Amino acid sequence: MKATVWAGRNRVQVESVPDPKILNDRDAIVRITSTAICGSDLHLYDGYIPTVKRGDVLGHEFMGEVVEVGKSVGNLAVGDRVVVPFPIACGACSACRRDLYSLCENSNPNAGIAEKFMGHSPAGLFGYSHMLGGFAGGQAEYARVPFADVGPLKIEDDLTDEQVLFLSDILPTGYMGAEMCDITPGDVVAVWGAGPVGLFAIMSAYLLGASKVIAVDRVPYRLELAEKIGATPVNFAETSVLEELRDITAGRGPDHCIDAAGMEARSGSRPVDAYDRVKQAARLETERPHAIREAAMSCRNGGTLSIVGVYGGLMDKFPIGAVMNRSLTIKTGQCHVHRYMRPLLERIRKGDIDPTIIVSHHLTLDQAAHGYEIFKNKEDRCTKVILNPT
């Protein structure tokens, strides 16, 4: 089959790789109809996630048709149309029983590697390094889905792939980012990063009762899209974010700040931006923590920092003094996607959320390298790329 594979820093290519096979009675094989390039994929593309190897199949946002099931998979049948969550979860361990699916204790066969980096291992993830399981991803014609009796969500109506594909990751991630803020009616929320996750966090914050949502980014067309869905845009390349947020909130700061940017954030200060870019390139730190630094300094006293942008290791000069002395609460995590898929599917059916608004490009799988380039470099007003293997 054809698949998008990692070919070195800033390089992906579509190659022929072996077809996936049933390895466990709880597996399924899915023929992929739609898959997407995620902002998290760019961290692998740029070489900042350790234990990625040449030839690894990328991608963790995918859906398709079941073509084979293991003997223990009783909830799926050949021909079912499914969306697959990006964390792999067993459904039975202590974490899964508490709906903390991205912390599954049984799905990462390489837990020992993750423990060296993080202390304890999270769940295995599709297409996201050997540290997190070494599982082949979904930017391919077919994928093996472990624990298929737990993860995939059947789509039994006529909703299009474009409407439901993002239930695999970014829609639940944006929603969880807003949910972790414990928003009460009238709250002001600021979101760093007006990419796909940030846009879904904005929509979700309004669904959960926010009176105003502020989008912080530097790319004009992304800020235009954020404004289209109701956010107040702030361009950090043109203004002091801290001062702008004080002005908007009468000096208090936002009640909640969501970091949807993560480890490759940019800064409006050229010296600070250069400092962190050089340190990251030299591997003296793994993150560029501009967004979370700024969020910590901007949030009102007693407010919440919600972090759903991906971080991989260590950062420099995090303002822990501001967090501690001003009683800020930090909540974070890879999204527990399984928990949110069905409720958000109902939101889509009712018209509360329109996921298609973020899609800018449909490409074939063979065009994956082009998709990565325009998404990374924000060319051609690219906000989200869907790859269609068929």
UniProtKB/TrEMBL annotation:
Q: Could you list this entry's UniProt keywords, alphabetically sorted.
A: Metal-binding, Oxidoreductase, Zinc
Q: Which residues form the Alcohol dehydrogenase-like C-terminal domain?
A: 196-264
- Residues in Alcohol dehydrogenase-like N-terminal domain copies: 25-153
Documented EC number(s): 1.1.1.284
The record's section on CDD domains has:
FDH_like_1 (cd08283)
Cofactor(s) demanded: Zn(2+)
Q: Which Pfam families match?
A: ADH_N, ADH_zinc_N
Which PANTHER family does the record cross-reference, listed alphabetically? Answer: DEHYDROGENASE, ZINC-CONTAINING, PUTATIVE (AFU_ORTHOLOGUE AFUA_2G02810)-RELATED, ZINC-TYPE ALCOHOL DEHYDROGENASE-LIKE
The Swiss-Prot or TrEMBL record describes its family as follows: Belongs to the zinc-containing alcohol dehydrogenase family.
- This protein's name: GroES-like protein
**From what organism does this protein derive?**
Mycobacterium parascrofulaceum ATCC BAA-614
Gene for this chain: fdh
